[in-house]
Design brief:
Helices cover 27% and strands 26% of the residues. It contains 13 helices and 27 strands. Helix 1 runs parallel beside helix 8, helix 11 packs across helix 12 and helix 11 crosses helix 13.
Length: 464
């Protein structure tokens, strides 16, 4: 069996590792358009801020491919799929045969057709990030166009380098897809404390040598302009091969396209009318596709989206139907703008259907599990928002946390799995990450993993 994977980003590299974990003998070739090894895009804002080096956000080292018998071909763009002969053809003419093919081509940055837009730098890839870092070293002030999740991360990263940043956003409040208006305003105030001035309801008309010209004629001064205007799935290869493409490459519950020998996973795939732009669904899809590819039975039923952002002085989790008001659901809300705190629960038919948690909160884990599992919401609503107020015991310490408690949502790692790999010899976070992949997604679980590992070491008298 010959498996070819087109795309070696977060979805493609996970698919390859999932396949190899199930089948050590299948012939696997993966083509990556980028020249280097796969890396975690979620952590690029840390590279931008200078808190992580590029090598620290890698997902798989080149040595992994050699050790696992996988042929990785970096810097190789696949130009065509020949479905009749079952070959992919690269831009430099290489023809690679396949029995099964996986498209993991991801997304590309949206670059608006503005005059002078070539002066700006998109924020999407590691190469983009490195260009921005070089430019930031010479810049006096920066502007970021786009106030979604990516724009927030870019602005936070640039502010972390000491640059004054103006964040320009067309909608009436930041992250309008995930947050309601009040949460967007609280987030804006939090960013202001970091040196980011957020301006909403403004439209960029041109990128000029001295900054961004707004539609009303005002010039927002900046000598570094970063674009974070969203992404779109890369589907041209699939469309040219005659596969069905809507917003993404259309797939069924096995992640197969209309051609049963071709799969699609990650940000390029459209399942049941939805294109997911987050890492957790991509990795869930990779696991399902790998199971099917290696002869097993699995079905992808869609993902429950939880948007996470954890950075210096900015902690955010948003899930589900966050925009609903009291006329459509029970809404429990708390706001403390001076502390950058906003918490909102949206409950319908006794189930949690949405939540926003902005600012430090120990309720994130509990609420995420309630949302994921669709279980009944306890009657003590205040106890959900503020676990410390509840009369019921709270698993704030690892000793009180059940082994079944999910610690790393991106990789579905429980406390029990962390305990098991600790008992097998992993004595630090790096060892746990290598064994379970915990902390390698959005990294928001790192503190929890450190706490569990530290507690286990204390219990057994192992020096940390």
């Amino acid at each position: 069996m010959r498996l070819v994977v087109v795309g070696n980003g977060m979805a493609g590299s996970r698919l390859v590792s999932e396949v190899r974990a199930r089948d050590p003998r299948m012939r696997v070739t993966v083509f990556g358009a980028e020249a280097g090894p796969p890396y975690n895009r979620v952590l690029l804002s840390d590279v931008l801020a200078g808190s992580s080096r590029p090598d620290q956000v890698r997902l798989l080292d080149p040595s992994w491919y050699a050790a696992h018998g996988v042929e990785a071909v970096p810097g190789a763009e696949v130009a065509r799929i020949d479905r009749d002969t079952r070959h992919v053809v690269t831009a430099d003419g290489r023809r690679e045969p396949y029995d099964l093919l996986v498209l993991a081509t991801g997304s590309q940055a949206v670059v608006p057709p503005l005059p002078g837009v070539g002066r700006a730098v998109p924020f999407r890839t590691l190469e983009d990030c490195e260009r921005i870092v070089r430019a930031a070293g010479r810049a006096r002030r920066a502007a970021v166009v786009g106030g979604g999740l990516l724009g927030i991360e870019a602005a936070r990263g640039l502010a972390g380098r000491g640059l004054p940043v103006t964040l320009l956003h067309l909608a009436g409040h930041l992250m309008e897809r995930q947050l309601d208006a009040e949460a967007g305003e609280v987030l804006g105030q939090t960013l202001a404390g970091l040196g980011v001035v957020a301006r909403t309801g403004v439209s960029a008309a041109a990128v000029e040598p001295d900054g961004v010209r707004l539609a009303g004629g005002e010039l927002v001064e900046a000598d570094l302009v970063v674009l974070a205007c969203g992404v779109r799935p890369v589907t041209g290869l699939a469309a040219e091969a005659g596969l069905e493409v809507r917003r993404g490459v259309v797939v069924d519950d096995e992640l197969r396209t209309g051609d049963p020998s071709i799969f699609a996973v990650g940000e390029c795939a459209e399942h049941d009318g939805t294109v997911y732009g987050l890492v957790a669904p991509a990795w869930e899809q990779a696991a399902v596709a790998a199971e099917v590819i290696t002869g097993g039975k699995a079905r992808y039923r869609g993902s429950r989206l939880v948007t996470r952002l954890k950075a210096r002085s900015v902690e955010l989790a948003a899930m589900g139907e966050t925009q609903l008001g009291e006329e459509h659901a029970e809404v429990v809300r708390f706001s403390h703008r001076a502390r950058g705190t906003y918490r909102k629960l949206v409950i319908r038919d006794g189930r949690l259907v949405g939540a926003i948690l902005l600012g430090e909160s120990d309720a994130v884990g509990t609420l995420t599990q309630l949302f994921d599992r669709g279980g009944p919401v306890p009657g003590d609503r205040a106890g959900l928002l503020f676990p410390g107020l509840s009369t019921a015991p709270v698993a704030g310490s690892p000793v009180l946390m059940p082994d079944a408690a999910e610690v790393c949502r991106c990789n579905n790692v429980t406390k029990g799995q962390i305990r098991a790999c600790w008992e097998a010899g992993a004595r630090d976070v790096a060892g746990v990450a290598a064994a379970t992949r915990a902390t390698t997604g959005c990294s928001t679980c790192r503190d929890a993993v450190e706490g569990i590992v530290g507690w286990l070491c204390d219990q057994e008298g192992v020096p940390v």
